[in-house]
Amino acid sequence: xxxxxxxxxxxxxxxxxxxxxxxxxxxxxxxxxxxxxxxxxxxxxxxxxxxxxxxxxxxxxxxxxxxxxxxxxxxxxxxxxxxxxxxxxxxxxxxxxxxxxxxxxxxxxxxxxxxxxxxxxxxxxxxxxxxxxxxxxxxxxxxxxxxxxxxxxxxxxxxxxxxxxxxxxxxxxxxxxxxxxxxxxxxxxxxxxxxxxxxxxxxxxxxxxxxxxxxxxxxxxxxxxxxxxxxxxxxxxxxxxxxxxxxxxxxxxxxxxxxxxxxxxxxxxxxxxxxxxxxxxxxxxxxxxx
Length: 290
Fold this sequence. Notes:
By secondary structure, the chain is of the alpha/beta class. It is 22% helix and 28% strand.
């Protein structure tokens, strides 16, 4: 059974935060921004990666959460009370009998139900001479599968932060029918000025999708600083929303599927994608819309 036709237009809000290891403080900041975005007309509000708890680099996560636990219940109540879709950019999901966690996005509907969960597939293990040294895999277990959520707002592709550097994931989501791609992130202040916006724009252009990227911003502790620049790009690659200052806030943009259809009809690059370059299998449905 095919998914229902989504609304032609709706409003998305991408939230920018400055989270740290103080969970109560982070929740208050998140709730304040979500409520403000909903009051401004957002149908879906997206929070950044690690919005509820952002640890000091090199330290173990001490506050992992079960998906049926208190944090997701709180998010569910917030979404239900505001009658919005709510994307928890990522939370530290507990793994039974493991000291490591999943870095997990949770999408909730206006009734508070969990519509989809996505576990970050690509882990940020880097050692840049004179720059950042990070090893996410010490504490995080990677996910194993892409995720698309079928919602009344359309087919939504879920990704997290470092995934952005792997275009094959986004092409897979686009060929599987994703119309909007989400990239909640805590992009580093070192790589961000050169890579963040260009990579977001590239993912939008090459897949002719909306790209929504809520971000962490500013200094979190002595060892971590994020670039910010929460952004929304349209399927032509035009920047339609940006939070420029490195402080909490949000941006609202209109998702317009009619404009997306026109772009895909005039420049049908998704239909021109070659089967030979997708040895893992070809999606059954390559249409631009459900």
